[in-house]
Structure formats: structure tokens, C-alpha cells
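Worked example 2:
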Amino acid sequence: MKNINRSRAAFITLCLIITFVNVKGQTSETTVASPPASSIKVTAELVSSYVWRGSMATASATPNIQPTLSYVKGNFEIGAWGSTDFQGSYKEVDPYVSYTAGKLKFTLTDYNWNFNHANYFNYKNSETGHMFEGAIGYTGSESLPISVSLNTMFYGYDKKPGDTTKQAFSTYIELGYTKGPASFFFGFTPWTGFYNNYGNTSFDATASKKSFSIVNIGTTLTRSVKITDSFSLPLRATLVINPAASYAKADFVHLVFGITF
């Protein structure tokens, strides 16, 4: 078990080293512009169903409203993202803080959708319903419109199946490519964790044997509908396929429609 944990730590460390080398190279070649003034950002998206990293986040395919409220100061942003359905059966509030450096973005998120697990303000590792995640994202240029993100849960409710005293360090990695109104994504998890074993109750008894898994592949098409001369309504349609859930028909493929306000 120690060897597995060391392998995970080595993998994440390697990704961080590569990322920071990239930052150093960019810093020497790029002139940093003056940061913009501070602002308050308020947005919301209406989605036909809430699918997150390849799996249905809610118990059933029901529309969700997903607002964001944040404060932006230069390259720094602090805010909260949420999701709730129209039946009142699901609620999620995720505070986050992020910092952008060139083409890189560093984010710390406090996920909490286990409201019945413990008091919201209980952050004790063995009892809390919160899950802390660190993420590093890279976005390419117009000439090379690729993106890469590494996301790892490192504290809280994200525990190993059958052993609630040890962190699972559930990790999700996504590669993306954008061409005009279309974007393509390929997401996978490198080892046993939330995304391929216990994040979905429809997984069967053999799920505990899964390790590396492709969990989120698909495409998003966007279109902006002009309402007035000064206002357009962004629309999107996303097709999601989760090969790791191929035996769970309800969670294998999703088609999600979204409107951003």
C-alpha cells in the first residue's frame, strides 16, 4: 500500500514539476500586463441535467440552476459556485479561490454535496462532508488551442472504499482541444478513486477492482443567439460518454443542454 501511495505522490509531483518549468519558461518570454481593476462577477447557467466529469451528479436527470458569485482582483479570484435542482432534493455550494499566471491557473476548491453527512462547519478530516481539491490548468494559444488540467482531492470525505481512515487522493486529468465553436475533451483517472469506483452508486461489486479508467470523453458545441444589439444568449450542447460506467446504462452516455445568463 505504501508503494502505491508513493507512486501517486511521484506522479503528482512530476506533473507539478513539468507545470512549474513551463511557468518559468513563459515568464522569461512574456511581458506581464498591468492587472485589471477589481470587479464582482455574477453568472448563472441553466442545464438540462447536472453531469460532472463523466457522471450524473444528482440522483436523477433533472434540470439544475448553477450560479457563480465571485470577486476578481487582477489575476486573483475568490468565489462560490453552486447547483440546485427545481425539486429541492439537491443542493451544492463549492467555495473556491484561484490565481492565474499567464496560461496557467491554480485553483483550490472546497466541494460539499454531502450535507446530510455532518455539520457544514465540521472540518474534522474523519467526520467532514467537505472535500478539498487542488487543481492546475493550462490553456494554450489561438495557434495551439489545447488545454490540460490536473485535479486531485487531498482532504476530507474522499476516502478509500472499505477504509475510511485513508485518503483516496481521487485524481481527474483532462485533455482538451478547441476548434471554432466546438471543443473536445478526454478525461481519465489514473488510479482507484471517486471517478471510477464509488462516486456513483450504480457501480457494481467489481468496481473496487478498477484502477486507471477513461471516465469522460465527448464534445461541446456552443452558439450565441442574438437577443438585442447589445445582448446575446450563449447556448451549449455537450455529449458525454463514460466508458468506465459502460455496464450502468443510465450513466454511460449523456446529452446536456445549457444556457448561460
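Residues 10-32, 200-207 have pLDDT under 50 and may be disordered. Residues 2-29 form the longest helix (28 residues).
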